[in-house]
Design brief:
- The chain is α+β, with helices and mostly antiparallel strands and 487 residues long.
- The chain is built from 19 helices and twelve strands.
- The strands form four sheets. Strands 9-5-11-10 form a four-stranded antiparallel beta sheet, with helices on both faces.
- Helix 3 packs across helix 4.
């Protein structure tokens, strides 16, 4: 529950009524609905959707928050409201358990201090008259609600700070950061670096290079016309071979009777029938020769394939590749991208080295023009691994920089360069890139200490939530209960 906000019984009822149109149709007449839907447990304490429960109060809180933001409470937002409420209930129970173990009790003075603003007059001062005019039942309810809220928030406030417990500009509670640590986080942003970048896309690997490889490895692209029987164990495979040899059963009938059809269609025809594809089916690559040398209408010995044991039959003559046809060019390109990525990287790495040599002779712009590569300007950024929100980071939306914020080689290379120095080639996913450190200062203002402190508190709080939601104490049946009862 949001700290510092109390909900009366009336407000809870009103807010939950707003959800009835979406929640209740699927639960009316259901005994579970009358008892309360249990979405899970934390440390054996039920998280139940029923009047007066913590879960229901959180639902009302988030429903109100959604409406205050101008969002309509409908079937699409209902899920998020319930999910947020479930998570908040789990956190409340976990934090209360932690406080309960310490034996701490809420001081009466703390309750009194928190109650005073509820009885302020128009001048913002505590009014005895307003207090005395309030019925005792309402006062006791307010006192009980405040005591519960203070108890529930004690763990959070102790560990992550409280906006209501401030002395001057300093929070009285929460994890503290040393001045040296904070100074470092503020200062490190001053080492910002901007770059020129030349990015060479691997998918632009020239067709002539692909065909050069294909002609040097022509056998890989021979297409075979074969059928195959695949079974789980070798004993069954041996039995099939004996029956076929004795003429007790045809190869086609053996396919129908025995084959798992792991590598074939329903008629037993081999699905992936280029030589490199057949080779990838084998437990021992040396067995390839036993398959590709089978004459028409002949069968292979039993072959240990990756899934089971297989017997191959040559149904027709092998088809030699014709690299002038578009479909075969596409097959070669697909093969190289899937299985020979290093030769593409080697090609562009060599090209990048030639590019760098040209930069040294002339300039980065001139080299880009000569090699027909766009010079991409990368705005200055500090060394921010993982793009934490405490400072700016590299723009990973730029082509060639996907994942750069978590690529140690990229960051080490970029921040080891001297001004105007050009980097060695860097392999970045689908690209090979070259950087030149230009010290471009086109960057927003560095984040200041108060912002950084807030972010650090958020990281701590998020880490606590992740740990608690993964706790073995949590029995999480949220999804099944929600979709089974409220959709």
């Amino acid at each position: 529950m949001k700290k510092g906000v109390l909900y009366t019984a009336g407000s809870i009822i009103i807010l939950i009524i707003c959800l009835l149109a979406f929640v209740m149709p699927s639960t009316l007449g259901n005994s579970k609905a009358q008892e309360g839907l249990v979405f899970g447990k934390y440390n054996n304490k039920k998280i139940s959707y029923e009047y007066g429960s913590d879960f229901s109060e959180f639902i009302s809180h988030y429903a109100e928050m959604f409406r205050n933001q101008g969002m309509q409470i409908d079937s699409s937002t209902q899920y998020y409201i319930f999910n947020y409420a479930f998570n908040s209930t789990v956190m409340k129970y976990a934090y209360e358990d932690a406080v309960r173990k310490t034996g701490w009790e809420v001081p009466k003075e703390a309750i009194n201090r928190r109650m005073r603003p509820y009885f302020y007059d128009e001048n913002g001062k505590f009014s005895t008259r307003i207090y005395n005019q309030t019925d005792s039942a309402s006062i006791e309810k307010l006192r009980a609600d405040i005591e519960t809220e203070l108890f529930s928030s004690r763990f959070y406030d102790d560990n992550f700070g409280s906006q209501s417990d401030i002395f001057g500009t300093e929070a009285l509670f929460g994890i503290k950061e040393s001045d040296s640590e904070l100074d470092f986080l503020v200062a490190y942003q001053n080492d910002k670096r901007g770059f020129n970048m030349a990015a060479m896309k691997k998918s632009d690997y020239p067709e002539e290079e692909q065909l050069k490889y294909a002609n040097q490895n022509k056998a890989k692209f021979i297409k075979y016309d074969m059928s195959v029987i695949t079974v789980e164990d070798k004993a069954t495979a041996e039995k099939i071979v004996k029956r076929i040899t004795k003429g007790e059963i045809s190869f086609e009938d053996a396919i129908a009777e025995y084959s798992e059809k792991t590598y074939s269609n329903s008629e037993g025809k081999l699905n992936n029938n280029y030589q490199y594809q057949i080779e990838n089916l084998l437990e021992d690559k040396a067995d390839l020769e036993k398959i590709v040398t089978v004459a028409k209408d002949g069968t292979s010995p039993i072959i240990n394939t990756l899934i089971g044991f297989s017997i191959f039959r040559a149904d027709g003559e092998a088809e030699q590749p014709d690299f002038t046809k578009d479909d075969m060019k596409a097959k070669v390109s697909s093969y190289i991208n899937a299985y020979e990525a290093t030769i593409v990287e080697d090609y562009f790495t060599a090209k990048a080295k030639d590019f760098t040599a040209e930069v040294m002779k002339s300039s980065f712009d001139a080299a880009c023009e000569k090699f027909d590569i766009e010079n991409t300007s990368v705005a200055a950024f500090p060394l921010n691994f993982g793009s934490t929100t405490i400072s700016q980071s590299v723009d990973t939306s730029i082509a060639g920089l996907r994942g750069a914020d978590k690529n140690e080689n990229f960051l080490k290379t970029a921040f080891a360069l001297k001004l105007n120095e050009v980097s060695a080639p860097i392999v970045m996913n689908d690209y090979v890139i070259v950087l030149q450190y230009t010290n471009n200062e086109s960057i927003a203002e560095a984040k200041e200490a108060p912002y950084i402190l807030t972010q650090l508190e958020d990281y701590d709080s998020e880490a606590a939530q992740n740990a608690i939601m993964d706790s073995p104490k949590l029995e999480n049946n949220f999804a099944s209960t929600y979709y089974g009862n409220l959709m």
